[in-house]
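Q: Hi! First time doing this. I have a protein sequence and I read that you can turn it into a structure. Is that right? Here it is:
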Amino acid sequence: MLGNLTMAALQEAVSDGRIDTVLACIVDMQGRLMGKRLHAAHFCDGGHKESHCCDYLLATDLPMYTVEGFKSSSWDKGYGDYIMKPDLATLRLVPWLPGTALVLCDILDHHTHAPVPHAPRQMLKAQIARLEALGYTPCLATELEFFLFRSDPDSLRRAGYRPLETLSGVNEDYHILQTTKEETVLRPLRNGLYGAGIPVEGSKGEAETGQHELNIRYGEGVLAADYHTIAKHAAKECAFAAGHTATFIAKWRADKVGSATHIHQSLKGAEGPAFHDPSRRFGMSALMEAYMAGLIAYAPEIMVFCAPYVNSYKRFRKGTFAPTRAVWSVDNRTAAFRLVADGTPGVRVECRLGGADLNPYLAMAALLAAGAAGIEEGLSLGEPASGDAYEGTGAEVPLTLRDATNTLRGSTMLRAAFGDPVVDHYVRAAEWEQEAFDAAVTDWEIERGFELA
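A: Yes, that's right. Below is the predicted 3D structure, encoded as structure tokens:
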């Protein structure tokens, strides 16, 4: 599903007063919506052609600090402008905000009007084009996990995020009674997304206290990442409207299971599902085997895009459903790559490495690059793992941001796929995240050593 508003429909809604605001949004490095609230009349008059934003929006960290060391934008370059070019195919209603529509914008160079190569949406589009040149259209879907907390985010911030109390106090995995208690957030979220043209399937309780999962139907090409980004944003806004907080941090407490983003992948060819061949093992085509072999071979190199922060790696613990080894399996949730719907035309691979904190455009771009490399290099897929993959023999993925950054820095595959400047840009982002953490004094250090050191 594309956006559910045309320019003509928007103009009519503006004329009769139903819509007065258009959110013109880019996607930043962290996967967040950034941009401007435009008066809808201005958007219709000319704002739909382009707007502008500071180029530092693709060179900051989570708290919006202007990080040094990026070549694309810096104090030395004066932090100039990017062009925000609305993709009118994404124009849609925002039912959970009164009188509001939203459009996603691509980021163009202010002088050349060329796409900015390290912009997350552009990086994904480039890998989609690469696979389309081979004759295939990527079909992708995500599962979003998150926690709901009782207080609103402003109250939690003023209190130093202590104490943190989840909205539910019990494990609510698939639990209808418990999730009924949280319908003040989840029902407006589901209905709002559906009204925005996002093909939401449903929500469910997840395997921890206060944890939920949102499932969205697959989309071709860039659509799945668009869906994910808008849905994540909507979850936070719907929770805030109800006086609560939704968090997508990968690991909010050491003794609680983390939150993931599982990414389902398949390819469609001219004659239908390209991953399916009923004559082969598990119904997997030779193409699918090569694609999956690429995922496994290059899993260590794409980890920064699946787990971008220091906290992201706190998920990866035995017995938490967060995998630690780059192996594949048949319907086995302990492996990094799970074969789903084997033997059917819907056969696909689910990547379980990603945390809830990932940027879907970057993660999908990296996964498609790895899969495409597997196809182009004719890689062979080994035997599936069985049993507990935590105890298996497959290669271990990087389990710290420092190791993942070093692996990304040396990735010839991603440098060929994205280009050296793009890889260097995200290496710098990861380096800064590690530097900022290394300079911090944590609660753990104070509690452990304040009196006893």
